Amino acid sequence: MSLVIIGLSLLFFLGHALNWFFIKTKIPDLLILVVLGYIIGPTLGLIQASDLGMAGSVLSTTALIVILYEGGLNLSARDLLTSSLPALKLSLVGFLLIASAGAVVAWGIGFQESWTIAALLGICIGSTSSAIVIPMVKPLSIKKKTKTLLSLESAFTDVLAIILFLGLVESAAVGVYDPLELALGIGSNPLISLAIGISAALFWALAKKRFSFLVDMTFAGEAWALLIYGSIEFMGYNGAIGVLSLGFALANLDLLPKFIRSQISAIPISFEDLSLLSEITFLLRTFFFLYLGILIQFSSLSTVLVAIVLSLLIIVTRFLAIRLLFKPADYPRLDAMVSVAMGPRGLACAVLATIPLQKGIEGGEWLQNVAFALIPMTITLTALFVSLCESDKLRQKISQLFMAYPDEADKKIAQAENTAEPKAVSEQTDKTEEPQTAESKPPGDEKLLAADNSNGDSEENNEGS
Questions:
Q1: Angle at 355 between CA 352 and CA 358, to 5 degrees
Q2: Long-range Cβ contact pairs of 212-221 (< 8 A, separation 24 or more)
């Protein structure tokens, strides 16, 4: 027990130290945590996922809920209105490209007869991790609009991957495939989860107004988010999108009509609650990525090679999607680079990868091993690209791929030159057009002018005489 207590305390200080390291070096602390988890887990065998039992999965799910809840609280309606459609387009295009590429790779290496496992692999790796993207983009030097877009994209792809994957798994289990049923499931599930999350936010704001003595306590908001997530999942819908919409609705209650705002609490989330939530999120996130590293398995060389190919394909397909959808007039070069880099896979991919094996689907173990090897590779590539993008010197090495997008630094220099050049020209013009008066003439000219005047006076005198 003493070692567990020591480990928890070290976890807290480790998280803050790595966060400081990330701010200074732009090397994501998430990657270091995953690598550290892999070292103390599969490499050294100091701890196994089975040692944590149900506590590991419960804490990792709790971390995901709190991260999504905090992410929703940091979304503004104005940013959402300007970014939701681009995020949806990026989600659909990026998902279809990598899902198709992943299915083709699996089909090409020996799953021609069992196309189901190939399709499941493509869908599984199509999910961009919300738990990684949301905290990672927060300190980056990109526009707020781009941060919102990438956060929404990760939420959309999670929903899309989960619904398609579970629907296809159930169809494979019973041997009946109904595309229409899958399409209807995609249309209704997110909307119902969204409606439940918004309704829960309104109810919470009302309870804070009318029954503050019951809900006005520390950690009450986070407990409410956990309750909503569990309830939505129990009803068979997507709890992730429900919790994200809960946080978003609470952050934008000021947009409601005045007669509704008069019936609810004006401050459903206090500053103290947000401060506590930030610390809880930080600690749970630290545990989550350590736990993810413990889960990683490299079963064979062929599995590792497939994971490497798929990781590179994720970057390639994201580059194609960004070039297709991001207009150079709307996004600077740094934003385009970071958007290409934001393709990490995380908890949703790991959880989905375990389901086919549990259901007894042929090729399920292979799919799980590939996904578990893929996750740290995508996080590594994301960390590498983020470091390249945030460093001015390193960014120049990959800028040739993004020359269509304007560089903010170059734009500022050009603007400074354009504003300085007319000023210099006007000064030069003023000097050339300045009249050559006696006051403006040099000393030598003044003497000549005085001599001319004296000669003129003498001539006039002579004429007068």
A1: 160
A2: 212/265, 218/272, 218/273, 218/276, 219/276, 219/280, 220/273, 221/250, 221/268, 221/269, 221/273, 221/277
> Residue 317: its pLDDT value, please?
95
Contact in structure between 373 and 297 (CB atoms under 8 Å): yes
The rounded distance, in Å, linking the Cα atoms of 181 and 397 is 48
Residue 416: strand, helix, or coil: helix
Query: 129 or 82: which carries more pLDDT confidence?
Result: 129
pLDDT averaged over every residue in the chain? 76
Give CA–CA dist 53/40, Å, rounded: 17
Asked if 117 contacts 356 with a C-beta cutoff of 8 angstroms, the reply is yes
User: How far is it, in rounded angstroms, from Cα 314 to Cα 343?
Assistant: 7
User: What's the token pair of residue 122?
Assistant: 């493509």
- Helix pair 144-174, 54-73: axis angle to 10 deg: 140
The four Cα atoms 274, 280, 282, 285 give a dihedral, to 10 degrees, of -130
Interior angle at CA 271, CA 265 and CA 272, nearest 5: 110
Domains contained in the chain, CATH given: 2-402 (1.20.1530.20), 412-464 (no CATH)
3-state secondary structure 136-173: HHCCCCCCHHHHHHHHHHHHHHHHHHHHHHHHHHHHHH
3-state secondary structure at position 200? helix
Q: What's the Cα-to-Cα distance from 415 to each of 31, 331, 338, 418, rounded to whole Å?
A: 38, 18, 24, 5
Dump pLDDT digits (tens) for 82-125.
Answer: 677 888 899 999 999 999 999 999 888 866 556 788 899 999 99
Q: Residue 238 corresponds to which amino acid?
A: N
At position 308, the amino acid (one-letter code) is: I
Angle 299-300-303 from CA coordinates, rounded to 5°: 95
**Of 378, 392, 295, 388, the residue nearest 342 (C-alpha):** 378
